[in-house]
Amino acid sequence: MELEKPEIINDKIFRILGCVYYGNPFHTHKGWDPQNEIGNTWRRFEDISKKYRLFLEKIKTGEHYGFEVHIEPGDYKNVKKFHIFVGIEVKNLEFFPLEMFYKQFPKTKYLFFTSRYKGQGVESIFRNWLPKSNYEQSYPYIMQAYSLKRWNNDDIENSLMDWYIPIKEKEDLIK
Questions:
Q1: First CA to last CA distance, the chain
Q2: Among positive and negative, which fits the CA dihedral 62, 142, 14, 18?
């Protein structure tokens, strides 16, 4: 399957409630393995979600089953550790369960596209699409979103995932 043509979403704010991991998520299992720390973070989120199911159903927004955000801190290039944040998109919150974390991401434009599992699409975006476009990444994170309509845990290899990459116009073009 070819990479779906990316579209630009203007001025979106994501509010995600979920669980977080910091470190090298691949230190025990490399790549796309459900036994690595990313898989463990998803399992922890799913277990907590069962406990608060009714509350989460009231505050959830959007069609996606869940989001996985990879956030690179300032020292990422030296330490190779980053934040993995998994959760659901929610409305503004005044309260949330103590076991969960809430993060509001900055209002920005997003490059949105859908691709098959294993990230081939995001590699193509960073290697081909972004360098040839009038855009660059605006913040050091990427979001993967899973829709129940396109994701199937029993057929992961053929499942589709949505990507959101925060972007801005290239600064040298603005001046």
A1: 38
A2: positive
Give all domains of the chain, ordered by start, each with its CATH number: 7-174 (3.20.80.10)
Closest CA to 17 of 70, 83, 92: 92
- Contact 29/36 with Cβ under 8 angstroms? yes
- Bridge partners of residue 15, in order along the sequence: 104
Helix (H, G, I), strand (E, B) or coil at 24: coil
E runs forming strands in the chain:
7-12, 15-23, 64-71, 82-89, 101-104, 108-116, 135-137, 141-147, 160-169
Q: State pLDDT tens for residues 151-172.
A: 766 777 777 888 999 999 987 5
pTM for the structure as a whole:
0.86
How far is Cα 143 from Cα 48, in angstroms, rounded to an integer?
21
- What are the tokens at 166? 């925060």
